[in-house]
Amino acid sequence: MPASSSTSIRFYDAMIPIIFLIIILSFNVLVVFGDEATSGPNQFALLLAGAVAAIIGFKHGVTYNQMLLKVSKNIESTSGAILILLFVGALTGTWLISGIIPTMVYYGLKLINPVVFLASSLIITALVSLIIGSSWSTTATVGIALIGIGKALGFPAPMVAGAVISGAYFGDKMSPLSDTTNLASAIAGVDLYKHVRYMMYTTIPTISIALIIFIILGLSHSGTEIHNTQALLLDIKKSFFIHPALLLVPATVILLIFKKTPPLVALLAGVLLGGLTALFFQKELLLKMIEPHQTYYIGAYKNIMKAVVWDINIDTANPILNELFSSSGMKGMLSTIWLIISAMFFGGIMEAIGALKKISETLLNKFKGTFGLFASTDLTCIVFNATASDQYLAIVVPGKMYKQAFDDAGLAPENLSRTLEDSGTVTSVLVPWNTGGAYNAKVLGVPTESYFIYAIFNWLSPIMTLIFAYFKIKIRKQKNKMINRV
Fold first, then answer.
1. Is it the case that residue 374 has pLDDT exceeding 80?
2. In whole angstroms, what is the distance from residue 399 CA to residue 419 CA?
3. Which partner for 104 in 145, 179, 232, 329 could form a disulfide, CB atoms 3.0-4.6 Å apart?
C-alpha cells in the first residue's frame, strides 16, 4: 500500500530534501552564481531536491505515478500565474515604448519629494492595492514606475522594492476584494468583514513600524546621492512625448481590476492600449527605430511587437535613463516561469510522499498551549511557502489542519484566519522560488534576497502575530468556551 499518509514517513526523512535544497541553493547564491542563480542553477537545484524527495518516497512505497500526478496538479494550479507573468512582460515592454512608464517617472520626479519618497512609495502602493485587491497588479503597474523614480533619485533598488512590496501586500491583505483575504476567511469560517477588522490589531502596528523605518531611511539618505532631477526631466522629454493623457492607460487597467475584471483580461487590455498609445503618441521615437525600407505602420508594428516579446532599449542622452528604460518583454519572464515549474515539481513530490503533512504535525505536537498553537500555524504557513512554493497552499492546508485545534482550544475562528494572513499571505514574496517571490523579483528587477531585508511589513507580520499570541493581546475567545492555558 502506498505510504502517502504522514504516519508512514519520519520527520527526519521529511526534512532531508529541505536541508539538501537549502545547502545547494545557498552554495549557488553565496559561492558560485550570485544574482544569476535564478537564471538556471536554482531551477535545477529544485529538481534535484525533488529527486531526493522521490527517492525517499519510493522507499516508503509511494509510486512514481502518484508523485507525477501531484506534480501535474501543482503545475496546473500555477497556470494562471504563468500566463500573468507573460502578460506582465508584454505590458512592461509596451508601456515603455508607448511612453507610459517614462510619463509616470517624469511626473513622479516632479511631484514626489526625495526625502519622503520611500514612505510615499509605501503609502501609494498600499492605497492602490487596497482599492484593487491585488499586490501583483500593484507591483506590475505603479510598482514598476516607483522603481524607476527611485533609481532616478539615487535610491538603492532593493530599498525601493521593499517599500513597494510592503505597501502592496498590506493592501492585498486588508482589501475585501483580495482573493487571499476571502480565502483565509472562508477556510477559517469567518465573516469577511469581521476577518478584516480583526486583522487590524496586528496589521496596523506592523505597517506603522514599516512606515516609520522608511521615513527614517528617507531622511538619512545622503543628499549627494540625489541625482539632478531637472536634467533627468529634460532628457526624458527629449526622448518621449510626455503628457498626462498617457496616464489614462494605467488608470484604465487599475479600474478594470477594481471592477473585478479577470487579471488576464485587464493586463491584455493594458498591453493593447499601450501598443496603440505608442502608435499614435510616440511617432518620433518609432521613426528613429524603423528601418529605412519600411513604411511607418509596418515598422511601428514590428518595433511594438519586439517590445512585447523581446528586448528593447531606448537610448537617451543620460546613462541613468538608458538603464531604466529597457525591458525584456515576455522573453524576460521565461526564467521565472522555469523557476515556478521547478518549484511546483519539488512541492508536488514533497506533498505526495507526505513530507509536508508530517512536518506540520510535528510542529503542532512540538508546541503546546495557546502560544504553541499560534506558533505552529505561523511556522507551518512559512514552511508551505518555502516548500510547496505557493501562497494559496500556504493558506489552505494549514487552515484545514489547524481549524479544529483552534476550536478545541476555545479560540474564535478569526484568530486562525488572521494568523493565516499574517504568515501565509505575506511571506510568499520572501521566498525566491515561491510564485510570489519569483514574480516580484522579475517584475521589479530586484532579486528576492536583495529586497528581503527591506520588505519590512512582510517579515515583521509573522513576528507580530507571535508577539500578540505570547502576551495574549487581542486573542478572542469563543463564547461559552474556556481557552486552554499555557
1. yes
2. 9
3. 145
Residue 460's contacts (CB-CB under 8 Å, 6 or more residues apart) are: 206, 209, 210
Concatenated DSSP letters for 423-442? IIIHHGGGSTTSHHHHHHHH
pLDDT at 147: 92
Q: For residue 195, give every residue at least 6 positions away whose Cβ sits within 8 Å of its Cβ, in sequence order, or none.
A: 181, 184, 185, 188, 414, 417, 418
Whether the Cβ atoms of residue 123 and residue 167 lie closer than 8 Å to each other: yes
* Contacts by residues 372-375 (CB-CB < 8 Å, ≥ 24 positions apart): 372/486, 373/402, 373/405, 373/406, 373/409, 373/411, 374/415, 374/419, 374/465, 374/466, 374/469, 375/466, 375/469
353, 4 Cβ separation under 8 angstroms: yes
Tell me the C-alpha distance between 424 and 439, whole Å: 16
- For residue 416, the Cα-to-chain-centroid distance in whole angstroms is 22
Give buried/exposed letters for 239-268 (b at 16+ CB in 10 A, else e): bbbbeeebeebbeebbebbbeeeebeebbb
Q: Is the pLDDT of residue 7 over 60?
A: no
